[in-house]
Amino acid sequence: MTTPSPQPSNQNLSSFIWSVADSLRGPFKQSEYGRVILPFTVLRRLECVLEPTRETVLSTYEDIKGEGIDLNAVLPTVAGATFFNTSQYTLATLGQTNTRGNLEDYIAQFSPNARTIFDHFNLGQWLEKLEANNLLHHVAQQFAAIDLHPDRVSNIEMGHIFEHLIYKFAESANDTAGEYYTPRDVVRLATTLTIDPDSDELTDQGVIRTVYDPAAGTGGFLSAAIEQVRDWNEDARLVPYSQELNSETYAIQVADKLIQGYDTNNLKLGNTLSDDELGSETFHYGLSNPPFGTDWKSFKDAIEAEAKRGFAGRFGPGTPRVSDASMLFLLHLLSKRRPRSQGGSRFGIVLSGSPLFTGGAGSGESEIRRWILEEDLLEGIVALPTDLFYNTGIATYIWVLSNAKPKKRKGKVQLIDATNMHTSMRKSLGSKRKMISDEQIAEIARSYDAFEESGTSKIFDATDFGYRRVTIERPLKLTYTPHDPDRLAAMRDDKAWAKLDEEERTALEAVLPSLDERIPSRDRFERDLKAALTTHGVKLSAAMKKLAQKHLSESDETADVCKDKKGNVEPDTTLRDYENVPLGEDVNAYVEREVLPHVPDAWIDDSKRDEKDGQVGIVGYEIPFNRHFYVYTPPRPLEEIDRDLKETTDRIKAMIERLSG
């Protein structure tokens, strides 16, 4: 009999578990390793939780089976958990002769709320493949040797293990771990920023709160929030709700919450944006890291149908471009806010940079920002260091939102630049090269809580991010060159030329050479052309005017201004420009100060008005985060640059001389 190897430390446990993949090499593709390792890890975790009461549960089951008693009402209490298992088997006792049949019996004897986990893993097909390759008993024995009881491996530590396993699984499958798992340092910071302001209330006796994640992955945000509240008050209860699209990460999430003793009926599987499974629910807290840059083309019809419901649905303010669903998740989360009269809600969501500024005035993205800021729902944004996530090194931000802001924050938005608050990892995990330490999380949280201006913290009025996009026109001034051979050739090639009567074409060909070579006035050109055509018995038609203007004219500052039949100055669309005027500033005063000194003949097109307030200029909102923290660094003095260049040149010359010598 061989002596089992001692269990590795928790720090190395995930690597040890993943090493089981070595035995899968050959019959299984690398992309399939995780399909085996993840469900077996969950199975062993559940088994370890039930081990202390296993014999008592089996004894009770034997006593009451066949008596018509609801097992789900009795056995969870006996098991000391929200689930149970009545099989005679364990991973260690499956046997070598009928391993698959015994294991399938073992899984089938779990209570329904645990058994469904393995359905989501689609474990049956992988058991069949393991058996066909004589690997099933070996793999089961390897997992049976690992102790994953919560007393040995806490829920937080188990989360770290799943974090590593999912990263390795995604890496081997050439997939993106960041779609399924949020790094725990980011989770901890977002949870702290969202829940910490309520820490005093959460110390009350018997307090119960709800927390929701619409893109929950393995449930890391939910676990972190529960753990944080428990740190403040062991008697407080945070009830988790979620929805997740990926069935495997959903299965891990359900297993985790079962072990923690929660009702997993609150955890839903499906597409949150197209089919909200918790449509009537609202929550105290919301936490999420939706996938970056995911398009919503495949369920566009459902989104647009929801948007047509206006504010009776989730997307009343508008919809973003179809290439990025981030702001749909943002609106969805905000739709889950509790009424202010009931205390309101606080939400934290991790987003890329695009929701800050993508889309100009009047666009879906701008209208969403407008609604959030004008409704005073945005409390603050924290810019995170790059290289925090497994599959991307892009800039990311935590948005903190609330419909029950404290008095000092009403009408205000706080921006915190935490991009330099990070620690280098000893070993990179994909694109994740940095982490935020607990001390740095505390420092960021203190800065947020202080709500004061500093080098890394700035406070703005919500309207500071708004502007009016004003259309600036300049007069159309045209000079005609009716003798230019290239322009004449282009006019003849135009399809509109062929639509003219033959008499009109012949007359134009005859009279254009008779006009002045350069005519800096449209009125004069058309007057002269009309007179010349009359001698050929042809009237100057609108089509002929349009052709001549298109091909024979060019913009010319020295030419006369073009006017319409009513005497109004016509704008030159090629010179049209736009100015973003800060909200609250008079657009006429702004244009007089910023535009007219440079182009005195410009004017505002006051027909372009905002649909909501009817004023001149289309209202837009953007949050130019980096601009507010930009610090100008003057260039080095020229003398210093010249000196460095001379030193470099002298060094190169010396090297050449040595080589030639």
Overall mean pLDDT stands at: 91
From the 3D structure, determine the CATH topology of the largest domain: Rossmann fold
The CATH first-level class of the largest domain comes to Alpha Beta
CATH architecture identity of the largest domain? 3-Layer(aba) Sandwich
Query: Terminal Cα separation, in Å?
Result: 76 Å
Number of helices: 25
**Category by helix and strand content:** alpha/beta
Q: What is the domain total for the residues? A: 3
Radius of gyration: 35 Å
Helix content: 40-55%
Low-confidence stretches: 1-5
Largest sheet, spatial ordering of strands: 3-2-1-4-5-7-6-8-11
Give the oligomeric state of the chains in this entry, treating copies of one chain as homo and distinct chains as hetero.
single chain
| Total beta-strand segments | 17
Query: Beta-strand level of the residues, as a percent range?
Result: 5-15%
Shape from CA axes?
elongated
Largest sheet: 9 strands, mixed
Give an account of the 3D structure:
The protein is α/β, with parallel strands linked by helices and 661 residues long. The chain has 3 domains: 10-166; 176-469, 3-Layer(aba) Sandwich (Rossmann fold); 478-555. Helices cover 41% and strands 13% of the residues. The chain is built from 25 helices and 17 strands. It has a 9-stranded mixed beta sheet with strand order 3-2-1-4-5-7-6-8-11, sandwiched between helices. Strands 12, 15, 16 and 17 form a 4-stranded antiparallel beta sheet that branches. A hairpin with a 2-residue loop joins strand 9 (423-429) and strand 10 (432-435). Helix 6 runs antiparallel to helix 12 (247-259) and helix 10 (184-195) crosses helix 11 (220-232). The longest helix is centred in the C-terminal third of the chain and has 23 residues, at 638-660. It is elongated. It starts with 9 loop residues before the first helix and ends with a helix. Residues 1-5 have low confidence and may be disordered.
